[in-house]
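Journal club prep — side note

Before the paper discussion, L.F. wants everyone to see what a predicted structure for a comparable chain looks like in token form. Sequence:
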Amino acid sequence: MSCEIGPKIVGCRVVIKTLNSRIEGDVRNVDSNCSKVSLVNAAVVATGAKLPELYRIFVKDIVSITLAGENDISPENLTSGLSQLSFNSPPCIEKKVKPLLITHIEKKCSSVHLPPPSAPSNDRKIQPLVMQKVLPAHIKTLNNSIQVDVLTNKVPFEKAGEGGLASTLPNYTLIENIDELYKSAIGRLEKESVIGLSVEGVRTGRFGVVCWIGIATSDHVFLFDMCSLGSTGVNRGLANIFTNDKVIKVIHDCRCMSDAFVHQYGVKLNNVFDTQVAALVVDKNKYGKFNRYVPSLTRSLTDILNLPSMSMYHPRKRMGHEKEDEAIWKTRPLPQHLIEGAVFNVCWLRKLRLAIMEILLSDVTFGTSLYLKEISELADDSVAEKGVVAHVIPMSFKALHKMSRNGDACEDFHDTVPQNGCDPYVSFTRHISHVRKT
């Protein structure tokens, strides 16, 4: 093979096949010792994903090189054909380079084949140049754009046409301006005794961005576009609802929301029922001590309301890229699947509160049922005796007596983190080392 091909491909558009992928780009340089090829304007052929501005590929990892646009170049005339073409290097490439040694050219495909890479040694493994996405086993067979769906927080389904979030959500209204619709919504919310309240945004807190505020009544959800309304939208009516001690605000984890409202809007939330705190108390009553890890909304909905994971909205954020991924909430118009996600995050809070209250009051309810029949079911000759000992707790209340485990003061924490409510399309959680294996 002619050694002239090496410098001739500098400046050409090529497709380089490696062990793991096919990459297309313009050859900018072949380094002085012929160990790597530098590309500009490079992208992965299969997905179109853009690669870094200057992308280098080691020669040992290259299986073949194809000149883009060449259809039929035989081994006999490839060298002469190349010599007749005007392959100009980019202006910034002035230095001479060693020719890239190529041993074989395949007919009709313009592929320049290099010797197959040598087997990796025992002490060093060849790392792939482009890390490809590995799908969990339970979603490999799904016939949809699962990779795109998962990364954009869409909710994929196993079968086309299967009902989505929209079929289980209440009616909702998007409010983007301070107009009659805004005033009507505020007037309606001021008459409510219990509302659900949630926030969507970027790193929500005093240093973050509040993009949407969701407020739910028994049959409707209002989504307030805070990127449009701003502080004026809060001061014109929302603040009165947040501070009203006659309106119960049901929130799942109010910490960051309270921080944002205080430091961005100067508003302190009043009369809050936090379902995450309540779920922790329910868990503490069950295990005798608090769980070290707080329950997510989806886990609470699964444990307490028995909602299936497939019917929930599961927000997904890459570790180390949380701010970048959450920025999608600033998109206008907001994608439909995110609107449905925001509605989901607030519409179940009222029902979750009632269910938790029933659990927390279960001992009171059971004890009351014992009281109701404590005397009424006695024979006539036993009623007088019960009246004498009315100041003593009934013996039947032994069923309600719960001893703390080993007599501990319950100051420790347990580490049980069930997989209830986890995203069925993601095989990891932030508590991955603590998730109970099944």
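L.F.'s comment for the group: The first strand starts at residue 13 and ends at 18. Keep this in mind when we get to the figures.
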